Amino acid sequence: MQQFVNTALSGLTLGMVYAAFALALVMIWRSTRIVNFAQAPMAMITTFVALAVIDAGYSYWLGFALALLSGLVLGAVTERVVIRPVEGKPEINSVILTLGLFIVLHALASVVFGNRYRSFPAPFGVRGIEVGDTTLGITGFGLFSIAAVLVVMAFLVALFRYTDVGLRMRAAAFNQEVARLLGVRVGRMLTLGWALASLVGSLAGLLIAGGSLVHPGFMDSIVVFGFVAAVLGGLDSPLGAVLGGLLLGLSLSFVSGYVGSQLVALTALSILMLVLILRPGGLFAPAAQRRV
Questions:
Q1: Cα three-residue angle 80-97-25, rounded to 5 degrees
Q2: Model-level pTM?
Q3: Tens of pLDDT along 101-114?
């Protein structure tokens, strides 16, 4: 019984990590209709910014704040410098550019920060919480990660559903010409979308790195699992991204704990294929309206 509980708690924490990255993908998709494959190395760069601040002797929370701020700036600069020149061209051009940016940021991080593994601190305990004589499979930092992801999800839902800015961002993403005719400053909305998505991605990087080792490729596997979580829940739904991350994390945790860790990647691929075949829009995406 204890193994079952600990496996479930481990899956819960893992799922929230996937959900954090999936939320960044949902944010950029809803605000620009682009899948950003460079989200992972962008988060990796800002995580190394936080590590540089902490290694210089400053507090964890100062590094945390500067990482989020640098993510905000990096996203805005990426949109202005890399993506803006191909605006109005086929969307595949932007996607290919993000793949190129993936490679460039990896190489840049290797030159600036080096390729060795480095320890990244966590602000809370990384040992299992003890209840009586039992040690649970969840840590204080895991609880912090769960709370942080839920706060980000609530922010995104409120932004897109209840604010004028969110409505303008969605209009700019769906039809730029109509949005311009309605007075929406499309360029500013796209820049804001990239900046906020990069900020959420930076948070995901910090949550994934806490209490573990980091190197320029530490986010690479998260790209795959985060993308599966986003597709599972629906790329248009922040709540779906979190639920998709939880389902994926729990599924992979139970497969790893009871069947074998070597089947984790195959299980993730199987889940992705099943969702794309049976419900391509995602399990929790709103139903599409049909014209009669």
A1: 80
A2: 0.85
A3: 889 998 999 899 88
